[in-house]
Amino acid sequence: MQNIRVIVAAHKEAPMPEDQVYLPLWVGSAISDKDLTYQRDDDGDNISGKNPLYCELTGIYWAWKNLDASYIGLVHYRRFFRGKDKQAITGDELDKILSTHRIIVPKKRRYYIESLKSHYIHTHQAEEYDEMRKVVAEKYPEYLEVFDKAMDRTWGYMFNMMILPKELLADYCGWLFSIIDQVVENIGTGDRSAFEKRYPGRLSELLFNCWLEYKLSTGEIRKSDIMEVPLLNLGDEKIFKKGTAFLKAKFFGKKQEGSF
Q1: pLDDT at position 235, please?
Q2: Is the pLDDT of residue 3 over 60?
């Protein structure tokens, strides 16, 4: 089997797959008073203390800087890639996919009546989106055309879930954190609520789509390199509440006030 490690971002105890491909990772451990048995994300080179803003990105950063594997991925304690038996995908299944593909992403999330850009602006703060685009234009002007193309789509690869070759993860993370860090430096957190302060994590979901589209446009990645895998959601996904919040945001200007 190829050397594959998939971190499971978690901030509390939860059922974990027994397959050795998975590494439960306690995100935000540097600032938590809990006592979890998982690998801490404040061990080694880390940004664990930024977890209230960066969410699972502190896990991605830790994996980038500290894991030695050919392929590195991220899932969540209640959201996995789904395997053939409708459980969390196994290491053997991942090995088979990665023998013919280089990248694993979740099935596209479709918004139908919203683009990625309009959905973000309707549900969160336009200032955050605008500043992200500004920073991309300043730091990586060659990305701007594909950034707008990706943001105008009505679908995206969301949740910061992915499995990438280590070298591609390094490329992505170096690019991503240079943008996110600058956005946070420019606009800060102000008097936002705890939920609103997590905007860097939400922006990163959009940026992953931009980065991937750019790599496709340059030929560094081919469409045939990418495999979409369905999601396995554990627990109540609260579809009705999500749908109601989506419609309120689009048609009545009601910003999202919490996670579902």
Answers
A1: 76
A2: yes
pLDDT digits (tens, 9 = 90+) for 41-96: 999 999 999 999 999 999 999 999 999 999 999 999 999 999 999 999 999 999 99
| List of E strands, the chain | 4-10, 22-26, 39-40, 71-76, 79-81, 103-106, 109-110, 155-156, 162-165, 226-229, 231-233
Average pLDDT for the chain: 93
Distance CA 186, CA 247 (A): 31
Give the dihedral of Cα atoms 19, 93, 104, 1; nearest 10 deg.
80
Burial class (CB in 10 A: 0-12, 13-18, 19+), 9: buried
How many residues make up the chain in this entry?
A: 260
* pLDDT tens digits, one per residue of 241-257: 444 444 444 445 655 55
In order, the DSSP letters of 100-117 are T-SEEEEPPEE-SS--HH
pLDDT in tens, 129-140: 999 999 999 999
- Both tokens assigned to 166: 């280590």
Q: How far is CA 136 from CA 148, 158, 193, in A?
A: 11, 19, 26
**Average pLDDT rounded to a whole number, residues 199-205:** 98
Give the Å distances, CA to CA, from 219 to 154, 214, 222, 227: 23, 9, 6, 17
Domains (range + CATH), the chain: 4-252 (3.90.550)
Alpha carbon separation from 97 to 2, 75, 83, 214 (Å, rounded): 11, 17, 11, 23
Contacts of residue 43, Cβ cutoff 8 Å, sequence gap at least 6: 62, 66
Are 115 and 150 contacting, i.e. CB atoms less than 8 angstroms apart? Answer: no
